[in-house]
What we know:
- The complex is a heterodimer of chains A (277) and B (318).
- Helices cover 74% and strands 0% of the residues of chain A.
- Chain A has 277 residues and is mainly alpha-helical.
- Chain A has one domain (15-272).
- Chain B is of the alpha/beta class.
- Chain B has 2 domains: 8-222, Rossmann fold (3-Layer(aba) Sandwich), CATH 3.40.50.300; 227-286, Alpha-Beta Plaits (2-Layer Sandwich), CATH 3.30.70.
- Chain B is 30% helix and 26% strand.
- In chain B, the strands form 3 sheets. Chain B has a 6-stranded mixed beta sheet, sandwiched between helices. Chain B has a 4-stranded antiparallel beta sheet with strand order 11-12-10-13, covered by helices on one side.
- In chain B, strand 1 and strand 2 form a beta hairpin.
- Chain B is elongated.
- Chain B starts with 7 loop residues before the first strand and ends in a 21-residue tail after the last helix.
- At the A-B interface, helix 1 and helix 8 of A face helix 2 and helix 3 of B.
Amino acid sequence: MNGGSGRGFPLLWLALLRRRRMLVALLLGMVVFETLIVVIVDTVPPTTFFSAGGRRPPAVFRAFSGTSGEVSIASYPGLLGAGLVHPFWIALQLTAVGSLAAAAVAADVESGTIELLMARPLSRTRLLAERTAALLVVSALLNTAATLTVATGVALSPRLREAVPLGGVFAAGLMGWAFALCVTGPALAVSAAGRHRARVVGATIAVGAVGFAVNFVALAWEAAAPLRFVSPFHYYAPADVLAHGAVPWGSFGVLAGVGTLGIALAFALLARRDLAP
Amino acid sequence: MRATGPAIEISSLTKRYGRTVGVERLDITVGTGEVFGFLGPNGAGKTTTLRCLVGLLKPTAGRVRVLGLDPVADHRALAPALGYLPGELRLYPELTGARTLDLLARLSRAPTPRRAELCERLRLSSGDLGRPVAAYSHGTKQKLGLVQALQHDPELVVLDEPTEGLDPLVQETFYELLAEAAAAGRTVLLSSHVLPEVQRSCGRVAIVRKGHLVTVRSVAALREARARRVRLTFSDGRGRRPLPGAERWSPRWEDDRVELLIPPHEVVAALRDLLTLPVTDLTVEEAGLEEAFLDLYRDAPGVRPDVSGQDVRREERP
């Protein structure tokens, strides 16, 4: 580490170094997956996807393309949006967030390494700040990989370029990062208060999976429609963003606000607790 | 950092984990330059106390001052002057030994003038330092733990079971390092259940039991106050027999031989009486710290915390 990248931020560096193989795999997985989505969408016209029997796709399919209802999944933005809200995309995001949020505090407490760290002149604020920064960097890398892959596909395909503004792809990427931030906040709070990494990973999956399920139910069942407001997937609607080409700042604010509140809560919880195995 | 006054002041320290008591109303003062032992069995509260000293745990009640500072409130100012070896040393398995030392030194924000010397003396080779910690034996990890605790030449060294897993040669080096630290005016707090280690290294010792302080006194005084172990062999072949007044000395019989633990001030008078019997062999030796330790640890309501240095010896042995 002498003279290495860990000079200024050793804990950020440590968090990234320890999970470098997983991070490379996640990045590769994201690039390969989004490449497949772009190739499929470009190869098969969207209208043929759901044209058997002359039926239109059910309304609940909106949950799978990430739209509030304005954009059909049987369209280029709808299908590309499906690639940015697909369970595989969600799994990659949650894996990164869950793993690094667990590593922020709970994993060190569980393994006992926290003793050596905190016997140093290291403030709790700095510990969490560097670990949070690692998480935000990884989320940014993951969403940048997805965004650049889709953007490359859109730029290279005349049909996609005509239907999807390139600015929309980058706006969708920003919203993807905001979604990750929204999940990061609660996950970090659980890590800051906890002593078991499994609980942090579980909480991260719960926020993602339950959020998706709630949004799905709210779209499928009219009586449950108000529930959509508690799901991050109501605010993260990549198909809409791809179609319109602009960042929905209101939704961005909700996602980023929840994430920021969670991170603030994490700092408050960490300041109060004992830090020993 | 402050150069005068006690290095460690613990007043009425209480730490509870919910309903579980870690330590209760602990009072200990360790002077600057002292090598101080902290003895007790598992669960006695040693590690809890040490973690309060280095600022990992916040006391439930009481006051802790280390080098004149509050370990929690003044953590960033205090920590560079501390060297800490946890009882259960956990390291990042992916990092090499060298990277581990670099990381911890960087977090300590202090130069590491003693690293090379310590690695050499503790027989931690460059080959060892280049390997990931996951490949280390327990003893090698412990050596790395000692280097990280001492490499920045701290004013106060807090060691929790430091010789665990070290081979005898390295243990010898460790004792030399302790002696050198004391000679250089460093303060060392050594938590251990290895009695000879404390006996050899420490000037004073605190004994804790079930979260309470049993006594604080010098090792010499502890040993001095201990009973003398008197072994007698009788020549008449009668075996076990009543010995006048000896029941309070916990006689242990084996055929014609008996072992007694006699308080030092009674030894001469006791021997005068005993030697009126047909004795063919007699040995008298000082009971070690282990006996002192075990005696103080026996579960008896009569034992009260005593930090004055006065004898709290009990009169009976089980």
